Amino acid sequence: MQKRESGVRFMGMVIRSRISVLLFSMFSAFASLYVAGRLWQDAENRVYLAKELDRITGQGKSVLSVADSWKIIECREQQKILSGLEMELAAARQEGFGRKSNRDAIRKAWMGTGTTLKKMEDQKGIVIRFVIGRSSNRGDSLDRGIDNENALANDIFILDNHVEAPEELPNKTKLFFAQAAEHWDARYYAKVNDDVYVNIDAFADTLAAQVDKPRLYIGCMRSGEVFSEKGKRWYEPDWWKFGDGKTYFRHASGEMFVITKALAKFISINKSLLRTYAHDDISVGSWFIGLDVKHVDEKKFCCSSSWSTGALCSGV
Fold it and tell me: Where does it live in the cell (predicted)?
């Protein structure tokens, strides 16, 4: 079974000369999905508990029955749980949107900042950016925080017309490639999750070996089960389109993959027509399955949890 993304923020790389990559980093939103799901399940309970507590305590009884006393205790305990869940959700949303600690770790470990980042662009032709959309509450503290961070670091590619939400990851990926192709004239465009560490030199050497091929889709090619049961973690609403075998077609794992300029331009031109599925890696794979595209199963793009000989990436 392939590793699935839970709303991980991604980075984008654009490779212009020998190579040029745009790394983009998505936030982990599974925590917020989980907490939000629990809050949704308890929404009716909230209304009931509030009314029940008001009913019992508002009757003006001098002596309450044991049953009513237990109900009051239970109601108040449930209210505490719900309040705690709301706080968890707020924290999960902020972490999901921000993930500044991840970005700082990547800047320190392999991406670089300031003159180091500029030197990589000028000398190696590799442009690296974090890719982030906007808050659903446009102009709020989350948006201002990203704007302020970018004013200092100048390494964030902000998708102004995209609202960040876990379920919108496939559309975000599509919009990234479309806007990156319009913004940078590059040979390659790459997507990398922000929990992946990359050996840039090894990455560049790998792409340099493919330089004469115009329509490439490079990644750790996988397939896997299509989940048709609603409520399952990796549920696919369009499961019936994948046949009785319920197996996805071969596609590059979403942790890290690369497409060439011609394919990025194709996405840019046809973005309004390209269908998205529940997962961004499946969506991208579906766009190329009927085209004259060479799928390159590059095992070096299979990011494990630890560095191995010849590897160019490692998941965290």
Answer: Golgi apparatus membrane
How many whole angstroms separate alpha carbon 53 and alpha carbon 129?
A: 52
What pTM was computed for the model? 0.72
* pLDDT tens-digit series, residues 114-144: 999 999 888 888 899 999 999 988 999 989 9
User: Which sign, positive or negative, has the C-alpha torsion 263, 267, 273, 275?
Assistant: positive
Count of CB atoms situated within 10 Å of the CB of 101: 9
